Amino acid sequence: MFTEMPTAAHADRLTEAAFELACEQGFAELSARSLAARTGGSPSAINYHFGGREQLLLAVHAELGRRMEAARADALARCLEQMPAWVELPDMVAALLQMRLGEQRKILALRDELELEVSTGREPQLRPAAEQEVAQERQFWCGLARQFDAGPVAAEAWADLALGLTGLLLCETDPAARSAWITTPTARLHARLGRQPIVPSVTRKADARASIDAFARERAQTNETALRILDATLSTIARKGADRVVQREIAARAEVSLAAVTYFFRTKHDLITAAFAEHCRRLRSQRRGLLVFSAISDGTQS
Fold first, then answer.
1. How far apart are alpha carbons 198 and 31 in whole angstroms?
2. Which of 46, 79, 227, 267 could crosslink 32 through cysteines, CB 3.0-4.6 Å?
3. 130 and 245 together in one domain
């Protein structure tokens, strides 16, 4: 609970608490009442400091902007310090993406949710702030490309790739899996911009039976209750969207207790992240299965 303190300091503490709440449960759940429950204060006191939910959301976005700017600068400074002097742009982009997706997933996810809220028209007052943040993120990647002597068109292409990969891999927690999706596109864009021939990707054909056994073991390792929860979450996301996921509703659809949901996935953010990660895993498994059976068919025919 907040104790006596100057109004400005109190507001800063409330803003920080609101930011953490938004990261955990999303903008849709952020209100004076939910923030009061988090901080031990009263909704009226929170409305006094912010003047209503609209100003509260703007304060959270301002905090997000500050953290994003600091995170970008920190990641770039560390990459420049750690990478060798002869590093080329594709390697720098790949290193930065890996670092940010590994260390800054929370604020990147909140930024993406902000864009979703604005694009669906639910928070129109945040549109100017959201557009400014998107522009700053694009400018960051364009600026990096220009440091490596990329022209305007090439810099925009690198920014498009970096933004697209960030959105695609935001829910991928395995650095090795991310690497496969990052290194090849960056190398190919570098080759294309340099008018170099692009070498087609070659799929390695592992032993088919070993691949099938590994696939079966991967399926067996999934906890049955957690899988039911994730199935219910993916179904809800498909019908309503990720921003409308409610843990209590997920528990009812999965026919488990709310305690079971929070046991496996502590927050709404954890639940949605795990659901998308499971979705990606299933897609990879399906693709791997198709490649395995294709290899078996090729071997049989030959």
1. 51
2. 46
3. no
